[in-house]
Amino acid sequence: MKHSHSNIQTSPDLEACRTHSPLERASLDYWHLPPGALFALANWTFLDAAILSAHAHPPYDDPQIPPPVHVQFVDWVPGICSLLGMLIINLIDIRGDDYGDSTAVWRAHHFLFIGFAFMAGGPAGSVSLLVLKYAMMDYPEQYTYYGYVNVSQNVALMLSVVVLWIAQSAHTEYDYILTLQPQMQLH
To answer: What's the whole-model pTM score?
Structure first.
C-alpha cells in the first residue's frame, strides 16, 4: 500500500497495527476520563460546601443566631494553589525527550518543581486550615464539614494529576509501533 503523500510503501502488518478493536480504541480514546471525573468531583464538592455555607442558618424553631463560621476567601486559596500546580504540571510535555538545549531542560525542570510545590501547598494548606479554623474551634459537625471538603478537594485534585500523568506516560504497543515505523526500512 502506498501513502498518498509519499513514496514509502508499508507492509500489511503495519497497516493491521493501525486498526484496533472497539475495546482497544475505547481504551485509547477515554484515558482522560478518570482524571477529569476526579477534577470535576473535587471542585463540585467544594463549590457545594461554599454554597451551603452561604445559605447556612440555624433551624427555624431555634433562636436565630448567625452561623459561627463561613467559607471565605482563605478557604479558596488551597484549591487555587492546587489548580495552579495542576496547570503548570500538565503544561509540560513529558513525552518529548528533545527539549533542545540544556537551558530548556533546566527550565522544564524548574517549572515542574514550581508546579509540584503548588500541588503540595494545596493539601498542606487545606489540612492546616481544617485544624486551625474548624477543628480547634470545636464547631458542630455541620461547620467542620467545610474543612473536610477543602481537604478532600485538594487530595482529589492531586490524585487527578497523578492519574493523568500516569495515563499520559503509559505507552501502548500501538504507540511503540508507530514510533518505530519511520525508522524501519519498509519495502
So the answer is: 0.72
Residue 109: predicted pLDDT:
86
Share of the chain above pLDDT 90, in %: 40
If phi > 0 it is left, if psi is from -120 to 50 it is alpha, else beta; for residue 62 that is beta
Instruction: Specify the length of the chain in residues.
Output: 187
| Residue 45 · residue 148 · CB < 8 Å | no
| Whole-number Å distance between alpha carbons of 185 and 7 | 13
**What's the burial of 84, exposed, middle or buried (CB within 10 Å: 0-12/13-18/19+)?**
middle
Q: Report helix, strand or coil for 154.
A: helix
Residue in 77, 79, 74, 75 with CA at minimum distance from that of residue 39: 79
- Closest to 29 in 3D by CA, of 161, 181, 167, 178: 167
